[in-house]
Structure formats: C-alpha cells, structure tokens
Write a structure and sequence with these properties.
The chain has two helices and five strands. By secondary structure, the protein is an alpha+beta fold. Strands 1, 2, 3, 4 and 5 form a five-stranded antiparallel beta sheet that branches. The longest helix has about 100 residues. It is rod-shaped, with a radius of gyration of 40 Å.
Length: about 190
C-alpha cells in the first residue's frame, strides 16, 4: 500500500475518533444540563413546599395566640363577673343587716340560690361549641351552709369526633381545689 493511503486512513480514523469524542461530550453535556434543570425544578418545589409549611405554621401560631388571648379575656371576664357577684352579695347582706326584719344569713343563702338558678340554664350544643352556664362555664357559688365561697365551673366542648367535659372548683381565694376532665369519642 501506498504511504499516502496509510496516512489518509490514519487521519480518517483520528478524525472519526475526534468526532465520536466530540459527540459523546455533547451528549454528556446535554444529560448534565437536563439533570441541572430537574434539580432546579426540585429545589423550586422544595422552596414552595417550605414556604407553605412556614405559612401554615404562622397561621397555627396566630390561631394559638388568638386562642390564648380569648382564654385570657374569658378568665378576665370571669374574674370580673365573680367580683361583681361578690359585691352584689355583700350589698344584699349589708341591706339585710340594716333591715330589722331580715336575717343576713338567710339573705345570703337566698341570693346564692337565685344566682345558682339564673346561671344554670340556657345551654346549647353545636360543633366546636362550649356549653354551660356562661361562656367561661361558671355555675356560680354553691350553697353549702353559708360560709363556703367556692365556685364550681362546668365546661363542655364538642368537636368533630370527640366530646369533652371539664369540671373544676375554686375556693374563696380563687385557687383550683378540684379539676376533672372527661373525654369521650363522639357518638354519631
């Protein structure tokens, strides 16, 4: 064979090898770019998911804060109502002490009985509602002989799938002396 033909074959083979190498590199670069695009898409979806989780967490925190605020407001209103009740009771006793025909102990017992009757009615039930004597669930002072100033609270909540009842009692200093909670699955 002629030297020129051998050189042409070698150059042709080298060109063919260079072309295969170049095409292989182009294909690998294309695959890498496809993977980069997929990775960017996955990162974007992860960021959206993370942002949604942050938003949900913020909403839950806001709802929790609102619930705590409402609970504090209810406790404040309950304390105010109890103070007004005590003041009204003291005024009834004071009036009975000034009245020569009235007995202060009987006036106190009558006031306590009427107050207990007026706060024990009117309960309603609904999904996620609280039932009881008042929004805070107080049933008022119990008449246990005139000197006991304890207050018994009753609260009932009904949510999808569960019903809860809570009873607790406070002494005259406002300290909780009894606290019971019962939770039952809701009957359909």
């Amino acid at each position: 064979m002629d030297t020129g033909v051998i050189i042409a074959i070698v150059v042709g083979v080298l060109i063919l090898l260079a072309l295969l190498w170049f095409l292989g590199r182009k294909g690998r670069d294309r695959r890498h770019e496809t993977r980069r695009v997929e990775a960017r898409e996955i990162r974007r979806e992860a960021e959206v998911s993370s942002a949604q989780a942050d938003k949900t967490r913020a909403e839950a925190d806001a709802q929790s804060a609102e619930a705590r605020r409402q609970e504090a407001l209810a406790r404040e209103r309950q304390a105010s109502a109890e103070e007004q009740h005590r003041e009204a009771r003291e005024r009834h006793i004071e009036a009975a002490e000034k009245d020569p025909d009235a007995d202060p102990d009987e006036a106190a017992a009558e006031f306590d009985r009427r107050h207990a009757e007026s706060t024990s009615g009117g309960s309603t039930t609904g999904e996620g509602s609280t039932t009881g004597a008042t929004a805070a669930g107080a049933t008022g002072p119990r008449d246990t002989g005139g000197s006991d100033q304890s207050v018994e609270h009753y609260e009932r909540t009904s949510e999808p799938g569960v019903e809860r009842e809570r009873r607790f009692e406070r002494d005259e200093d406002g300290e909780v002396v009894r606290d019971e909670q019962v939770e039952e699955p809701r009957r359909q």
